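CORE FACILITY INTAKE
Project code: CF-77B
Contact: R.S. (postdoc)
Sample description: multi-component assembly, four entities in total
Requested service: structural model of the whole complex
Turnaround: standard
Below are the sequence entries exactly as provided by the requester. Do not edit them.
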Amino acid sequence: MAKSYSKPSTASPGVINEPSESQLAIQAQFIEIFVSAAAVLGVPRSIGEIYGVIFSAPRPLTFQEIVERLNLSKGSVSQGLRALRSLGAVRTAYVPGDRRDYFEPETELRNLVAGLLRDRINPHLEQAKGRLARVRQQVTDGGGLNTDEALVLRARVAKLESWRKKSALFLPLVTKVLG
Amino acid sequence: MAKSYSKPSTASPGVINEPSESQLAIQAQFIEIFVSAAAVLGVPRSIGEIYGVIFSAPRPLTFQEIVERLNLSKGSVSQGLRALRSLGAVRTAYVPGDRRDYFEPETELRNLVAGLLRDRINPHLEQAKGRLARVRQQVTDGGGLNTDEALVLRARVAKLESWRKKSALFLPLVTKVLG
DNA sequence: AAGCTTGTTCATTTTTTTCTAAACAGGCTA
DNA sequence: TAGCCTGTTTAGAAAAAAATGAACAAGCTT
């Protein structure tokens, strides 16, 4: 069964600014989109849900509101928010006279993409750089490789190095273009 | 413990063109790189291993060779190769007088990226297109939303639509630039 | 046709990831 | 300081993903 995000009938009283039924219906649609995006990006479903509920709220949400609207545990929300903050996908907003954190979305695509590059792609490219240097070494001095093999393997190392260079040059440009 | 890709001491006899020790050492390094890339892309480790062993082999490999060198089950290799073929990341090479399939890598970055876009990104963008159209509808006729809320929500829908459009325009360009 | 070889399928097991719930920390209030 | 609020940490449960292995197809060979 598809997970439902509709308002529970027993709304807690005294909370300011309860979302209307129609707003919740709209939020549910937004959330579906982000859950699907989360799947594409290979991140946990709950992270998609959390970003979705924040993105689709007309005002910053508290931790507690996120927990209640998504029926997630505090633990999941805490972890999810940490990941989203580290990516720069959500920010905390200051509300005078309120001790709680309020969360609002980063809505600039270029900033989101920049966060993904920084946290996920670049570390891998860096690591690959070192590894490739070592493989190149081994392939170049080529102890025990017959000549034909060595030729193909050197070409493959060169290929991989060209991939890495292209990526390292090109990816930073992406975020520029998305301005 | 890190998985090892070194040659088992009991090499099966009679197989043509056994890789040398130094070749296997090099292959192991390549494979590590692709396993790490698989993690970044959110695909199973075994798929990274399979592409890695094919990419780093100086000649096309048979199904059986892949199974043996990676210590994977036939099932995993069969499924992994199917996924890689669907992405266009490996091709079968014809060898006259041999019934077996021989697998060789696609080594052009742009083709690999094009495959990823086609199989993973575009379907999501298409789906989002439909979903966004429906949300726009709901937000626009706005039954039950107070005016302030409706304003913010409309702006958010517009944001998402602009993301989608930018992506749909930009991503196909990526593969061009990677030529 | 019987018996190989090559590879696929899919139910089950194993492993990994994700989520939860309960304990806890730190700060505010009374 | 005791009691409350807000959020974090983490051991373990639950769920999801991946790998296995055994049965199966399809095509040769003899």
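Facility notes:
- Chain B has six helices and three strands.
- Chain B has a mean pLDDT of 90.
Invoice: internal transfer
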